[in-house]
Amino acid sequence: MKEIQKLKKGNKIIIGIVAILAFIVIGSIGKSNNEVKVIINKAKEYLNNGEISEAEYVLRDKAGETNNREFKKLWSIAYGYEQVSNKFNLYDNIEWAEEMLDKIDESYKDYEPTREKIDNLKEELSDVKNTREEFKEKIDEVQRLIDEGSYEEAMELSKETPDWQKLSQKDKNTMMDLELQARDLYYGQKKSEKEEEIKKQDDEFTVEKAIEYAEDYSLRTGLDTLRVEVDKTPQYDEEGRKYYNVGVYIIELDELNDAYRIYSDGKIRRLD
């Protein structure tokens, strides 16, 4: 009998402890729920004013600790915007930014100033994507012009760059490399053309033309006291340029007055 009474007494103690613990837990849950409601109301107030950073700050303490659906919606709005609004992140990783914006709950449209900010961010992201796609097409066009040998056009097109800060570093590096390539090829082409022109000019340069140049240069004042003699054997300088040696004499004294080289373009180089 005494054992039964002890058992009943023990059960009463256990039941009392359980009741106390349940009361504490229920009270704690109630307190936590009240705290969440206060945070939700404060966050809504901030979002209604477009103060998204402030909303994210007050929500942060309970993020991941509550299953309140309304809280989670508000957190997706504030956290998503704050993550993407950093332009370094936005321009550095378009796919990531797009994914973060897609996770923002549609209820953001209920808060007008916040809706405007998020929609502007989405529009900016779309603009960045379009700018990058257009720039990639321009890269392809510059490459095509280079392949066709239109180096000057490629060089000019590569300089027509949109908002530089919206482009990926990889694409910027590609375009800069193409610009340098087009410039080198362009000036190399111009040099080759000039060399070909000079070679053609030199090939057609005769002693008769040399005499014409020399007389035009040395006798242009109309003096009849000088005579021009041109060595009929062509010479070539250290650069491979063709020239003729010219001597200008004082007729009366039969004395050398001047000596120079005459080139196919009519330019002279005096001899020491």
Written description of the protein model:
The protein is α+β, with helices and mostly antiparallel strands and 272 residues long. It has 3 domains: 94 residues; 73 residues; 67 residues. It contains 9 helices and 5 strands. Strands 1, 2, 3, 4 and 5 form a 5-stranded antiparallel β-sheet that branches. β3 and β4 form a beta hairpin. α6 packs parallel to α8. It is rod-shaped.
Brief summary:
This protein is of the alpha+beta class. It has helices at residues 2-48, 52-60, 69-84, 87-92, 94-102, 112-148, 151-159, 169-203, 207-218, and strands spanning 226-230, 235-236, 242-250, 255-263, 268-270.
Count of extended strands: 5
**Helical content class:** 55-70%
Low-pLDDT sequence parts: 18-31
State mean pLDDT (0 to 100 scale): 87
Radius of gyration: 44 Å
Shape designation: rod-shaped
Strand content: 5-15%
Largest sheet report:
5 strands, antiparallel
Distance between the termini: 142 Å
- Alpha-beta content class: alpha+beta
- Our count of domains comes out at 3
Helix count from the secondary structure assignment: 9
Give me the secondary-structure topology.
Elements: H1 2-48, H2 52-60, H3 69-84, H4 87-92, H5 94-102, H6 112-148, H7 151-159, H8 169-203, H9 207-218, E1 226-230, E2 235-236, E3 242-250, E4 255-263, E5 268-270
Antiparallel strand pairs: 1-3, 2-3, 3-4, 4-5
